[in-house]
TrEMBL record:
Keyword RNA-binding found: no
Family annotation (Pfam families): Aldedh (PF00171)
UniProt keyword terms in alphabetical order: NAD, Oxidoreductase
CDD domains (alphabetical): ALDH_F6_MMSDH
Tree of life domain: Bacteria
Protein name per UniProt: methylmalonate-semialdehyde dehydrogenase (CoA acylating)
Entry-linked Gene3D superfamilies: Aldehyde Dehydrogenase, Chain A, domain 1 (3.40.605.10), Aldehyde Dehydrogenase, Chain A, domain 2 (3.40.309.10)
Keyword Metal-binding: no
Length: 504
């Protein structure tokens, strides 16, 4: 039998998909089967330089392209994404492991940002103050910055790239994207569709790589802004290095998301929400609920929560009926299994053990089934570290105030949820909790693109979010212009125009 040759994932430079000359790289592996899908060459320094140079050259004309013309490209782009939704989801599932439903959700949440980018002109309006002084007007322009860059993680290979380059490009910038080297195939297909939609050569470029390419993007003097989503360790490095290079930087990083359950919460609805938020996408999302705080009598819910988690089906993402797919890699499997073992050794009670699960026909897959600990305390590794796997920690608080204090003491501030029927409890919770994104009976409170992703504290570095109104401010420079058109009365006796602005 002839073995099919493994293809290299191309780079996108100046509107052309090109094969890297690099000998360094890694394989893209199906996490359910260990099948090698492709090879990702890591871009050479010269190739990164070519991508940035292409973006810089394209900026000269793209920045002058009318807002309406840019918007029409994204109207076409969103239609192409809709037409290829099934293909994109299948590709994403093969390389990342998500269920097809999760994969479609990944693409769809990115599509919403593309739709928002198509209407972004309404957010690029400047301000005007007429006659701020005698005959003087002042107004502002929101002008594009130039070349921008984005570094995206493995867990949302469609959504997060679509958070970045459509917003930047719609604002008149050009872009260099570095997708995760673990699952770049769906990202490259999205880039191909962007070209088909009419994005001109050089306006969008894609390079692949590891730390060396990340550092090159942080350091390059022609890159004016950089957006990052990923781990706290890498995000802190990126923020520091890119900021020192004079760039605008936004980093969405690690999390420890809590869900607080009051005794009056609707039981079946809440249990379903908790299980979906904890174990969906195999727990590999920065907004996953990894801690449930049961308040007062709600502590009796533990057996019901275990039963609901036990009912989930573990399997390959493309298989019908799968609820929990594999982890992204063998290394991730080892890490999550090690954290479970650490939880046992530190004294937590293992209510449901998802280790060593066997999935028929997928014996080589990176599977961990839903896992649930009770009796977790704040000093345990399970609580202090971001788990990024299908592991849920259950804690108990006597009162709502005690639950709020527990959450506010955690350094992270990405998302939090409260389940209750009480409007008074909900109001107090949303006022007193120190977390950027709050859900009331909503387990994963990521806002739609009309707003902005607003993680806070240790979960975020930078002041502005990656989409919504905040993204327009991030990707544009405000220029203030003050004008005066003198008439004969402004000419003094010596024939000199009076240049002093006097407020009257």
């Amino acid at each position: 039998m002839t073995q099919t040759a493994i293809k290299d994932v191309p780079l996108l430079i100046d509107g052309q998909f090109v094969t890297s000359t690099s000998r360094e790289g890694r394989e893209v592996i199906n996490p359910a089967t260990q099948e090698v899908l492709a090879r990702v060459p890591f871009a050479t320094p010269e190739e990164v330089q070519r991508a940035v140079a292409s973006a810089k050259a394209a900026f000269a004309t793209w920045r002058k392209t009318p807002i309406g013309a840019r918007a029409r490209i994204f109207l076409r782009y969103q239609q192409l994404i809709r037409e290829h939704m099934s293909e994109l989801a299948a590709l994403l599932t093969a390389e990342q492991g998500k269920t097809l439903a999760d994969a479609e959700g990944d693409v769809f949440r990115g599509l919403e940002v593309v739709e928002h980018a198509a209407a972004i002109g309404n957010l690029q309006l400047g301000e005007l103050a007429n006659n701020v002084a005698s005959g003087v007007d002042t107004y502002t322009l929101l002008q594009p910055l130039g070349v921008c860059a984005g570094i995206t993680p493995f867990n949302f290979p469609a959504m997060i790239p679509l958070w970045m380059f459509p917003m930047a490009i719609a604002c008149g910038n050009t872009f260099v994207l570095k997708p995760s080297e673990q699952d770049p195939l769906v990202t490259m297909r999205l880039a191909e569709l962007a070209l088909e939609a009419g994005v001109p050569p050089g306006v969008l470029n894609v390079v692949h790589g590891g730390p060396a390419v990340v550092d090159a993007l942080c350091d390059h003097p022609d890159i004016k802004a950089l957006s990052f989503v990923g781990s706290t360790r890498v995000g802190t490095h990126v923020y520091r290095r890119a900021s020192e290079a004079g760039k605008r930087v936004q980093c969405m990083m690690g999390a420890k998301n809590h869900a607080v359950v009051m005794p009056d919460a609707p039981r079946e609805q809440t249990l379903a929400n908790l299980v979906g938020a904890a174990f969906g996408a195999a727990g590999q999302r920065c907004m996953a609920v990894s801690v449930v705080v049961l308040v007062g009598e709600a502590n009796s819910w533990v057996p019901d929560l275990v039963a609901k988690a036990r009912s989930l089906k573990v399997g390959a993402g493309h298989e019908h009926g799968t609820d929990v797919g594999p982890l992204i890699s063998c290394q991730a499997l080892d890490r999550v299994s090690g954290l479970i073992e650490r939880g046992l050794s530190e004294g937590a009670t293992l209510e449901l053990d998802g280790r060593n699960i066997q999935v028929e026909r997928y014996e080589k897959g990176n599977f961990v089934g839903p896992t649930l600990f009770s009796g977790v305390t704040t000093d345990m590794t399970l609580y202090r570290e971001e788990l990024f796997g299908p592991v849920l920690c259950v804690m108990h608080a006597a009162t709502l105030d005690e639950a709020i204090a527990l959450i506010n003491a955690n350094p992270n501030g990405n998302g939090v949820a409260l389940f209750t029927r009480s409007g008074a409890a909900a109001r107090r919770f949303q006022e007193d909790i120190d977390v950027g994104q709050v859900g009331i009976n909503v387990p994963i409170p990521v806002p739609v693109p009309l707003f902005s992703f607003s993680g806070s504290r240790a979960s975020k570095l930078g002041d502005l979010g990656p989409y919504g109104k905040q993204a327009v401010l991030f990707y544009t420079q405000t220029k203030t212009i003050t004008t005066r058109w003198p008439d004969e009365q402004d000419v003094g006796s010596a024939g000199v125009v009076n240049t002093t602005i006097t407020l009257k």
